Amino acid sequence: MTFIELIKQPWPWYVAGPIIGLMVPTLLIFGNKTFGISSSLRHVCAACFPAKIPFFQYDWKKEIWNLFFVFGIFLGGIITALYFKNDAAVVVDPRLITELSGYGIADFSGLVPAEIFSWASLATPRGFILMVIGGFFVGFGTRYAGGCTSGHAIMGLSNLQLPSLIATISFMAGGFIMANLLLPFILSL
Amino acid sequence: MIINKKDTNTDFEVRSLDAICKNQEAVELPMWHNLQYLAFGVAFGIVLIKSEVISWFRIQEMFRLQSFHMFGVIGSAVAVGALSVFLIKKFKIKSIHGEEIILPEKTFNKGQIYGGLLFGFGWAMTGACPGPLFAQLGYGAIATSATILMAIVGTWVYGLLREKLPV
After folding, report:
1. Is residue A3 a part of any domain in this protein?
2. A62, A122: one domain
């Protein structure tokens, strides 16, 4: 197996996790920046439509590194699609495959199920709820909580912050409630 | 535009309100220095996709406790991050520009619970947190742009309602 072929395979957790963890000291040492991504959404609001709201009245240009970082994540996605793409479907637990097939989800080739996350599906009840309402929750919830998986779960926990532990537990609790109790209803719409 | 000292202070106060990124280097660096963050972002985006942690299917597995994968990634990331922060504090490691590294303390408010639960809902629905949304879009999930737009709208509405929300 060549190196490129190896890279194209899904990376195991013990490779990916430590690399993600290394983002914390890298950002601190190279620029005294704390790892966090959801703030970029706030900077976009402050830059594009501040609308005299106090929360968006700050000099977003001082945080521009964060926008470079998320643009890099976007480019990373493009580069992976062009050079390191793995055409095999994601391998998940058979119980999940059975459950999702009950909702007409059978395409496991992408990062998201093609049956739901498409333009055409935006007009369907379940597509609208998952993409539009779900996206709103991501933006509203992360800002209300003061951070997301990167800022709280990884950076905050690395710095042993109790508020970040509370936030992370809340993220997980919300996810468990949604995935197990609410999503079966939404997916059957 | 005239900015007096008071305005400048207010600006800093507002900027630091529940923001994660409130560090600021004392040194003024030229704009091209930001390209390093672009490079870090590229690396981060590649890892997110190749480790499948931004796969909607992997997120569903995690929240159904059907796989260890996601917990392994987050757990080992926190372990490496915590060890790094410990070493930085212990040896008082400075940034490459010779500055003392600042690690902000967070204060508790109920938003971390209410907002956290709402974000948890969104995470399980979209299969993504804010970073992964951009990676999903780059990887070719074009319809994710609708989700990103709504995440920006959600952030904006939070800013609008901020004073009225329980904390």
Report:
1. yes
2. no
Residue A90 or residue B28, greater confidence:
A90
Which of A66, A142, A174 is nearest residue B21 as measured by Cβ atoms? A66
Nearest CA in chain B to A71: B38
The interface residues of chain B toward chain A in range 85-124, judged by CB-CB distance below 8 A, are 85, 87-88, 93, 95-97, 99, 101-109, 111-124
How does pLDDT run across A35-52, given as a tens digit for each residue?
Answer: 999 999 999 999 999 999
Q: What is the DSSP letter of B136?
A: H
Is there a contact between B19 and A146 if contact means CB atoms under 8 Å apart? yes
CA distance B29 to chain A (A): 10
| CA distance linking residue A137 with residue A41, whole number of Å | 13
Q: What is the pLDDT of residues A86-144, one digit of tens each?
A: 888 999 999 999 999 999 999 999 999 999 999 999 999 999 999 999 999 999 999 99
Is residue A184 included in any domain, yes or no? yes
Question: Cα separation of B67 and B57, whole Å?
Answer: 11
Segments forming the whole domain that contains residue A33 = 1-85
Q: DSSP for A82-144?
A: HHS---SPP---HHHHHHHHTTT----SSSS-TTTSSTGGGGSHHHIIIIIIHHHHHHHHHHH
If you measure CA to CA, which chain B residue comes closest to A61?
B31
Q: Which residues of chain A have a CB within 8 Å of the CB of B11?
A: 57-59
Q: Is the pLDDT assigned to residue B62 strictly greater than 90? A: yes
A80 shares a domain with A5: yes
**Among A62, A85, A108, which residue terminates a domain?**
A85
Q: pTM for this structure?
A: 0.92
Which residues of chain A have a CB within 8 Å of the CB of B90?
Answer: none
Residues A67, A16 within the same domain: yes
pLDDT band at B17 (very low <50, low <70, confident <90, very high): low
Q: Confirm whether A124 is domain-assigned.
A: yes
Q: How many angstroms from the chain centroid is the CA of residue A46? A: 21
Residue A92 domain flag: no
Nearest to B119 by CA among B141, B153, B151: B151
What's the number of domains chain A is made of?
A: 2
Complex ipTM: 0.95
pLDDT per position as a tens digit, A6-22: 899 999 999 999 999 99
Q: Do B130 and A132 touch (CB under 8 A)?
A: no
Chain B contact probe: residue of A43, A60, A66, A69 with most B CBs at under 10 A = A69
